[in-house]
Amino acid sequence: MPELESANWRGDHIGTTRVWGLVLWVFAWACLSSCSSLQPKATTWPEVLERLTPTREEVALPLVEIPSGATESPYAGVRVTCGGNDLLFQIDTGSSVTVLRESLRRDLRLRPMGKAEAEGFGAESTEQDLHWTSSLALGDLALKAEPVTFLADSKFDQLPKVTPTRVDGILGASLLQRGEIEFDGPNRRLIIRPFEKSTVQDSQNWIQLAHYENVNGYVVPLETGERSRVRFLLDTGSNVPLIFEEGQNLGARIKETHSIGESECSTFRGTYTLKAYRLPLPLGLGGYRFQPGLTVYVEPREDPRLDGSIGIPVIWSCKRVVLNRSLERAVFEPREAGPLS
Q1: pTM, 2 dp
Q2: Hey, how many other C-beta atoms are within 10 angstroms of the C-beta on 129?
Q3: What is the rounded CA–CA span in Å between residue 297 and residue 232?
Q4: Cα→Cα distances 188→48, 92, 142, 184, 333, Å
Q5: 295 exposure class (CB count in 10 Å sphere: 0-12, 13-18, 19+)
Q6: What topology does CATH give the domain 200-334?
Q7: Which of 77, 107, 230, 273 has the fewest CB atoms nearer than 10 Å to its CB?
Q8: Could you state, in order of their start, the residue ranges of all structural domains in the chain?
Q9: pLDDT tens-digit series, residues 182-208
């Protein structure tokens, strides 16, 4: 029966066509999904930091002074093994992520991670492409799965405007995830010890160390002497003691006083001209004190999350500074010579 055979053929043909159409659709969907998965995905800092491995052994490293433009307040640097090379990195807790020269990329084993909001690339936080690498080490401490980003060599080569010392990288705030961090100023040492061997809890003058999750920064409270506290970002990449946010109450109060001039505040993220003032009231940082009359600065931007930032001069003027991210505690132990004034 030719008509029946023809009908059967058409039915088989239609069925086969539908099957192949389904196969092609599934294949196309898989390709699109694969391509989509290759695109950098936004990620959060808690997701990033939970992958970092803390040290199991104490590591002590020499701190290298990097000229900052402020005679008594150099930046703090440390030698880092990077792709088999011994390089100088600046320690910058105000930078959310470790930043490397673009030319170092070829020496590293990298894995794309995605995007995350990061401080340290200008006045405002920006979204940066991040990568994982296990090619960095601090002495015997291998920085496994360190989140990094890259900056053009031309940008790093502009740093001699701030310092004549060649710097190949910036070690960011993720350092605090590796263990309890101690800045031993008098002996120019950086100590990284296991969290379980903490010394910060031995101090009676410890203060809270809060993690600023949105951009991976660390915040400490300053006591104003008026039964109130203000939140300051710990920023070792700044070469001035205190910078106040203009849009916050304390910054606005200081700005109402007489300015004593302008000064350049240099960081590896740029050099800014800010107005200088005399601190009108004492401030406390645990056992550390900022005396009235200290030269401070007011930054003309409004950040409702923070009242200001604390720079590297405070670190150097302490006998020791201990930061324990796990216990959320910090100690600023003053030298016998007294606080900044």
Answers
A1: 0.82
A2: 13
A3: 13
A4: 30, 16, 22, 6, 15
A5: middle
A6: Cathepsin D, subunit A; domain 1 (2.40.70)
A7: 273
A8: 47-193, 200-334
A9: 999 999 999 999 999 999 988 888 999
